[in-house]
Structures are given as structure tokens and as C-alpha cells.
């Protein structure tokens, strides 16, 4: 029997837990988004694709998912204390908001190429300054934050009297070192490991706002607390991000939320592991990075050829999201081979001459195979195991080739479409049974008729359901 029992590895308990949503039938998921100061690299893409598959699978399981993924356009500092977006604005002689817009566009376009679904809400940190100031006020009232020379810091020692700071990353107060993302003006702090909630801006600083303490800007960690609380509430289902964000970013978010409203923000913490190049973390700041377009065009001398975005996505998903993955020319070529083998199998079945003679034995084998595929996904979204199962189907097909009926052919192709296209997000070409575009046209027509009849319940339902699967209609549609 197909199981819907999903198990997720929770980084907070360091164990796989059975997933039970806080509210029956719906899931709130927050994923830390990109800092938009340069082109998104393949490492970033891997993380967002991991969460895209999680999002797709939760939708497949029937949950109504609110997926919030922010845009960090302010507050993420360089090691020298300068805001990353502001620094780039000076370099490119642009307004900081132009920089943010330019790289937000790049980010969205790139993820679209990878066939990732849009999140439900994509809030900007700079659009939530009021909410951030209000949280700081509350933390100060509770004596968990203090002002120093116009900046405000979270008081970890005070917080630790009633809570444990650092639980997510397994740290404790004794072994805390300074937060590497906010090294400037450390003299202001009571303790070097306290982190900034608000920073007084120096004159040269471009992005700044008024506050009760100074003209300044919010600390990086605070934006995620403000935006996740605003759109998902004080306690929501899943909080995700790259493994490198566990500390300090996510431990700080947990402390802020507990201090602010007395609750852990998320029930399940999910962390995607790093993409490496020559076994070193891919990173913008060290220059050890590859841009997706360099691979699509083959314009990078590490790689001998261009690779299709489907192949790159397939390559990512052949590793479990919690494992490190090293990218190389040979690894991508191996994935490409596998990917093409799978597409060949699908095309072979598409082109088989079948008859209306049903084959119950084959149908049962396909149903067993389907159960095994779902077991992989239910086991902490185990995409490499699922892909291995997809390959295994070739044996079933080969064993029965002569005796495949119309019914089994359709069953097999529908399942492939479901796993490979809808859940893994590999857009491998025209769907086998129906043309999605024509179905969309029919739905748009029904929606227009409903609107003319003033049946807004129906027209809104069509729009919302399409939006859940990543198709956004505008009012002209
Ligand atoms: P950033 O733009 O640096 O804030 O990063 C955006 C997202 O990409 C975060 O969730 C990071 O954890 C993630 N990320 C950064 N580098 C890598 C990498 N090499 N592999 C996978 N994810 C990464
Ligand atoms: Zn965040």
C-alpha cells in the first residue's frame, strides 16, 4: 500500500521524525533566501532546488503549503562590517535597490530555468523594518537586548539564564566565539558573542532607517524572525536553509523568537548540505564558484561541454540533500548518461505498440514499484534512492516488453511523469498523455466564464489551485 507517512530529519533533534503538521492539512515552510548582491551560483541553486523538491512533495501529499522564501537585500554584512548590497552599489555605481533588484531578477530567472516553483510569498528584508524594530523593542522590554552607542545587541548571557543558546548547532555559552558576520564595533558589546539586532550606520552607509536608537539598519538574523513570524506565525512547521546557516544565523533566530514570543519558531529544522568544487565549499566570497549560465553555455574551462539544466538538476538530486556533493566534469557527464538512459526508456515505452489486452501481473509489479518509489520519498525525501528505483523500472519493462497492454503503458508513463516531472521537477518534455498547455487553456476559459457569472468562489479557487502548483494567472488571463 502507498504510504503517506513522511519522515523528516530534524536538525534540532538530530534524528528522523515522523512528520505531523501543526495544523491538519496545511504546512508553513520558511526558507532563508539569497543575499542579492551578486549572481546566484550553483551552490545556492542546489539548496533552493532541494527545497523545491520538498515543496513539491508536500503539495503532492495533499498539503496546502505556504512557502515563504525571503530576499535579503539589507543587513548581511561582509567580514569588514560593510553591508554586502551597499558595497556592491558603490562598486557598480548604482542605487542599493537597483543592485538588489538586478540580482533578485537574476535569482528568479535562474531558478525558473531550473524549473523551480515560485514560493507563495517572497518578502524583502527592507520591506519589514517596522516589524524588526518592534521585535527589538519587545526584546529590550524583556531585558534581553541592550543599547550601546546607538546599536542594539541581543544579550546571550541573559537569555541563557532561562534558555539554552546554541542548541541547534550543539554549542553552549562556554564555547561561543564571536559571530563572524558582525565583527565591526565589537567594543560596543557586553560580550563578543552577542549579536547585533540594530546597527548604527556610519555616514558612508547607504541603506539606513530611523529608529529609536539611531539612524541605522537591522542585523541580518532579525529579518528572518520578523518575516517568518509575520507570514507563518510564532510557531510553524518547517524552517529550512543551507547547512552553513545553522550557526550563527538559525541559532540566533531561535533565541530571538524564544525571547520575543516564548516559542521555538519551527517544529522541524531542515538543512541542505553544500555543493563543493574540488572538495571546497562553493562560495561567492572566495571566488570558488560556478554560475549556472557558465554551465548552460559551456563557457567555463573546468567543464568540457555545456550541460542542460535538466541534467544539472538530475545531478543534484542523485545525491541526498543532507550529503555534501562535489561537482566535476566527470560527475556531470555520468549524470547526463544516466538521465538520457531514463529518457530513452520513457520514449521507448511511449513508442511501444500496445494492445487493449491487460496484463494484471505487470500492473501489480508496477504498483509494487510505485510503493517502493513513495517509500524513498517518505524517507526524508530520499531522491537518490528514488532515482535508483526509476532506473530499476527498466527491468520490469524489459521483462514484459512483449506483453504490455495500453493500461500498463499509461500507468507506467503516468508514474514516470509524476515522479520525474511533478515531484523531482525534471521537465523532460511533452507529457505522455495530455498537453499541459491545452489543459491550462481550458481552465482559463472556465475561470473567465465563472468571473462573467460573478461566481468568484469558483474563479478564485481555480486561480489559487493553479498558483499552488506554480502557475500564476494574472487578471488578464
Ligand atoms: P547567501 O546568498 O550566501 O545568503 O546563500 C543563499 C543560500 O544558499 C543559503 O541557504 C546558503 O546556505 C546556500 N548556499 C551557499 N553556498 C552554498 C553551497 N556551496 N552549497 C549549497 N548551498 C549553499
Ligand atoms: Zn534566514
Q: Your description of this structure?
A:
The chain is α/β, with parallel strands linked by helices. The protein has three domains: 23-272, Rossmann fold, CATH 3.40.50.620; 276-423, Orthogonal Bundle (Isoleucyl-tRNA Synthetase, Domain 1), CATH 1.10.730; 436-468, no CATH class. 45% of the residues lie in helices and 12% in strands. It is built from 15 helices and 13 strands. The protein has helices at 42-60, 84-92, 96-113, 129-141, 156-160, 220-232, 246-261, 292-297, 309-317, 329-350, 360-378, 383-400, 406-423, 436-452, 456-468; strands at residues 7-10, 15-18, 26-31, 64-69, 145-148, 151-154, 195-200, 216-218, 236-242, 266-272, 275-277, 280-281, 325-327. The strands form four sheets. The chain has a four-stranded parallel sheet with strand order 4-3-9-10, with helices on both faces. Strands 5-6-7-8 form a four-stranded antiparallel sheet. It has a three-stranded mixed sheet with strand order 12-11-13. α1 (42-60) links the parallel β3 (26-31) and β4 (64-69). The radius of gyration is 24 Å and the shape is globular. Bound molecules: adenosine monophosphate and zinc ion (ZN). The site of zinc ion has 4 residues, from loops.
